[in-house]
Predict the 3D structure of the following.
Amino acid sequence: MAGGEPLIACRKSFIAVREPLIACQKSLIAVREPFIACTTRIPNKPSEFAAYMVNTDNYQLQNNRFQNWGWTGQESTDWHTFRSQSDTLYAQYADKRHRNTDIKDQLLILIKNTLRYDHDKNTGHHLLDKIALNGTVSDCETFRIKKGTLLQDTTLTRTAAPGRKEVSIAIREIKHLLHVLLVTSVEHKKRGKEKGVKEIQVYIALTLNPQTIPAQADYQYSGDASRGLFRSVLDNTSLGKCAWYIARVKNSRGELGAFSMPAWAVVS
């Protein structure tokens, strides 16, 4: 035991020196983290990735919103290309009758390429960082950028006129002949009916391709999303088409709010 004491003492001295270094390293990380936008919010799971690309691509293309963040036209096109590739591959992946290892591997490679395009140290375009720097709270939420970073803007999103609630609609999940939609309040970012709301009306329109944008008259009532989630069940005649969705609120007095911006996804 006596012979071991110097070794123990030496070890304690080493730990005593090492601990301040670890503490210093942790403090540096703590200082650095708030200045880095979250670049890990692009999902790795195929079903989540497909829905994420649908929602973010729809969003960035609306009224050329991507220009607000400092994206170039080519970057917007590249993001849309990733989404188009995701639509094609996931349509095959979602149909279990045609799913195989090759399709899954291609989809995983696409996810990896999208991640690399955004935040590779040497060649990344850092698109999420640009949104965190120049976007609104709504922009950050759409791209799943973590709240509370110093890079995130605190600009408030628009609110509905008094007594007229407004909602936004997004694709939450894509499955074979099924789209799960998420409907949230524009003002409070909560899903489902708020006080004074009688119904959240969801409408659908089908087009042959995403370049054909349906007119408001083309939409048909599909159902009520009072709980904030809506399952759009489609049939085989819809396969390969684009399903467009809009929503609006009907209050307890029977007044109708404005239609939301559309969200669309390919029927797989």
User: Anything to note?
Assistant: The longest strand covers residues 197-207. Confidence is low (pLDDT under 50) at residues 20-39, 147-163. DSSP finds six helices and seven strands in the chain.
